[in-house]
Design goal:
Blueprint (H helix, E strand, L loop, with lengths): L8 H18 L23 E3 L7 H10 L4 E2 L1 H5 L5 H13 L7 H8 L18 E3 L7 H7 L4 E5 L3 H10 L1 H5 L4 H7 L4 H15 L4 H18 L5 E4 L6 H8 L14 H45 L1 H4 L4
Parallel strand pairs: 1-3, 1-4, 2-3, 4-5
C-alpha cells in the first residue's frame, strides 16, 4: 500500500493556505487534500487515560486545569489555538462525519492529532508523551468514536441544566460567532483567525450555537449518546459546583491535592475576552495591509501631482 510522505512545514502550510482559498471561494473545504495526511507522526508513549466528552460551558476549562494539576496533559480548544494549522484538520473531520464530505477519520488520524504530533516544532516538547486526556471541542464531536478507540480510557461527562447551558452559550460562543466582522477579521489575519473561523463556522453548523432551540436539542442528545456508548463503570457524571476533587480523584485513582481549591474560571468572560484580542490583533494587521496596498497609489498620485505641476505651468495662466 502506498504511503503518504510527510511534507516540510513550508510545503504543508502552502497546501493548507491553498485549501483555505478553495474554502473561501467555494464555501466548502477541499476533500481531495487532507492536511491531516501530511502531519508528521510520533509514537504514543503513554496510553490515553481520560476522555472528557462534555459540551463547552459545562466547566471544561476548570476540568482542564484540574486534570493538568493531577498530571494529565489535556488536549483542549486552547491547545488547538496555539497551533492553528490543526483547525483545518478538525474542520475536515467534522465535514466528513456529519455531511459525508471526504474520508471519515479512523484511529490513525485521531492519533496524529492527539499522540503528540504537533505541526510547529517549537511546541513539540510539550507533546513528548502525547495527550493523556481530551476535552471540549474539537474532540466532543467525536465522542462515540473516541470511546470505542480508547477502551481503557475513563470518561467524564460534565452536565448543567439545559436551560442554564443555553443561556451561557448565548452569552459566549453564540454571541461571539454571530459577530458580523469575522469575514473581514479572517481576511486580515489568515494565520490565526482564518483557520479558527472556518472551523467555528463548521462547528456552529453541527452544534447550533447561534440557534438556541437546536443547540438545546443537540446538547441533550449528545449527553444521552455518551451515556449509551460508555459502560457505566467507565463513566463519571460530574456536576460543576457540586462535584469536586473528591469525586474526580476517586474516579481517577489520584490523591486529592492538599490545600488546592477546585479550579473555578469565569470561562464566559475568558472566551469573549480571547476573541476581543483576536479583533484587536486583526485590526492592527488590517491597518498594515491597507497601508501596504495604499502605498503604491499614494506614490503614483504624488508622482502625477509632481508631473502635473512641472509640465502644466505654460497652461496655468489660461485658468487664472
Amino acid at each position: 500500500m502506498a504511503t503518504t510522505t510527510p511534507l516540510s512545514l513550508e510545503e504543508r502550510d502552502t497546501k493548507i493556505f491553498i485549501d483555505g482559498i478553495i474554502t473561501t471561494i467555494l464555501g466548502t473545504p477541499s476533500t481531495k487534500f487532507r492536511p491531516v495526511d501530511f502531519l508528521h507522526g510520533r509514537h504514543r508513549e503513554r496510553p490515553m487515560r481520560v476522555l472528557c466528552l462534555s459540551y463547552s460551558r459545562t466547566g471544561t476549562l476548570d476540568m482542564s486545569i484540574a486534570l493538568e494539576t493531577l498530571g494529565f496533559r489535556a488536549y483542549h480548544l486552547a491547545e488547538v489555538s496555539q497551533n492553528p494549522t490543526h483547525f483545518p484538520c478538525w474542520r475536515q473531520a467534522q465535514e466528513a462525519k456529519y455531511y459525508g464530505k471526504g474520508k471519515a477519520w479512523g484511529k490513525e488520524e485521531f492519533e496524529k492529532m492527539l499522540a503528540g504530533h504537533d505541526v510547529r516544532e517549537v511546541l513539540s516538547a510539550q507533546y513528548k508523551f502525547g495527550s493523556l486526556a481530551v476535552l471540549d471541542i474539537p474532540c466532543l464531536n467525536f465522542a462515540e468514536e473516541l470511546i470505542t478507540m480508547y477502551p481503557d480510557a475513563k470518561v467524564i461527562l460534565s452536565e448543567v441544566p439545559a436551560d442554564e447551558w443555553v443561556a451561557s452559550m448565548s452569552r459566549s460562543a453564540g454571541y461571539v460567532v454571530s459577530w458580523r466582522s469575522w469575514p473581514l477579521i479572517a481576511w486580515a489575519d489568515p494565520i490565526l483567525v482564518k483557520p479558527w473561523w472556518d472551523y467555528m463556522r463548521s462547528t456552529d453548523r453541527v452544534i447550533g450555537w447561534t440557534d438556541p432551540s437546536r443547540a438545546r436539542a443537540n446538547y441533550l442528545a449528545h449527553n444521552a449518546a455518551v451515556r449509551r456508548a460508555c459502560p457505566k463503570e467507565r463513566l463519571l457524571e460530574f456536576t460543576p459546583g457540586k462535584s469536586g476533587w473528591e469525586e474526580l480523584c476517586t474516579f481517577l485513582g489520584k490523591e486529592v491535592p492538599a490545600g488546592t481549591p477546585f479550579p473555578k474560571v469565569p470561562d464566559e468572560q475568558f472566551f469573549v475576552g480571547v476573541h476581543i484580542f483576536y479583533l484587536i490583533r486583526a485590526a492592527k494587521l488590517a491597518t498594515g495591509k491597507v497601508a501596504l496596498a495604499a502605498a503604491p497609489i499614494v506614490v503614483l498620485a504624488a508622482a502625477a501631482a509632481a508631473w502635473g505641476f512641472e509640465y502644466s505651468w505654460p497652461f496655468r495662466r489660461w485658468f487664472t
